[in-house]
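#structure-requests
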Amino acid sequence: MAINYQSIAQKLKQARELQSIMVETVSEDTGITVDRIHFIEVGQVRPSGDEVLILANYYRHDLRDFLDDKRPAPFEQTDLLYRRHGNDFSPNDRRSIQEFLYLCEIESELESDLDIKKLRFPFSPQGKYYKGHGENAARALRVFLGYAPNEIPRNLFADFRKIGCHVFRRRLENSDISGLYIEHPIAGHCLLVNYDEDIYRQRFSVGHEAAHAIFDSSDSVVVSFRQREGRYSEADLKEIRANRFASCYLMPPDQLPSVSTWTTDQAVHWAQQFRVSTESLSYALMEAKLIDKRTAQVIRSVKVHSSEKIDPEAPESLTDRQKERRLELLKRGLSTYYVNLCFEAHQRDLISAGRLGEAFLADHAETREISILFGRAIQYDA
């Protein structure tokens, strides 16, 4: 295969600029001189194979993104994202998003290599009533996944992975962003949930982003803002539809309680039953016309204590130290599903120990620490 060095130069520059990384920072972190990076980016010198490998790893891209011009364009979605919402993402958040997409690509490839089948959820909205789209899709998906009418979904992250979504959580500096959806040219449906939110809000957010995957994949990129931030428009029908889907999936309208007089204790109890925030519960009850605005204020006046909220990817069976470490990994995007997937691929000799570390965004020591935490072995080449 002939190597197009001009294309490599352009892609390396674009990868750096999309993440808002200064040349000086790249130089300090990689050991490649500032002048050398500049000359590579303008096409004045040809990068060595090692330099391309180092920079691809540093920018969290598959090496093939730079070498193979027949591979789907790796920057199209992020370029679109930042042209639409560039001011909303700090350099650190741009870095986090690129790492998220990198993990989505790896997850997609490993699922294919391990022959993990996904379910295709066939749903086509009818008519122009967007709230109805969301409610009907939520009902249909619950049936599709085998839920009983009165059964409350506990692990939404797993549910949406079953239908082909790549779901990752990552803390973003911009706390006004609840999540985003990207239709990736290789990985497909990619959902990022801001870990800055508490776990019950994250459950709602992943449902919201899954709705964008079901209904709005033609938009390529969707950023979801918190309602309180002021960027959310009540006239935005797609956002209304996504919220309705998430609400009905978590809290089926026919399962909402009819309580004559709501107390704060009842509000906490029912929010915990559905594993949602009291705010989400109040909106669902109002939509069902089971409460008035005054009662909604009573329900929203209390919250489920953070210590009582259950994260399905950090089970209670773990010790406090193990749980703390699992949660730290989740903040960086390393879900339990993803970590186990990588170890399974490694055990089957599909990826090396070195590639395992790259997949975990970790050095040798941390990769070993993760293996101990998950009770998995690492096989090193002799």
